[in-house]
Amino acid sequence: MRFPAVVDAVTVRAEVERIGGVDNHEAVYPNGDRCQYLVVWFRCRAVGGQARPDGEESLEVGWFAPDALPPGLGERTMLRIETTAAPQAPAWFPELAGDGGSAAFMS
Length: 107
Known about the structure:
Helix content is 16%, strand content 38%. It has 2 helices and 4 strands, in the order H-E-E-H-E-E.
């Protein structure tokens, strides 16, 4: 499976290796609107193209070693990086039992 959105945003062609995880979160906007986002992320590998910003969705792009990530990455971003780091790791899902945010891994 290939993702055109990756090509559009950073001009890299990517191929999916496995699902990384599924999560949801609520957003509240300044005008008071609320919405729920369903987020699905994948472990991918680059199969072509060159990483460069498109000027609209991305202003700067780069490749980083796991121990040299840029400062200030949020908790959700780190979760996505950590759950896709290992090639054969199980997919991450929020705990359905509702015990305050623990996670479940499924293989």
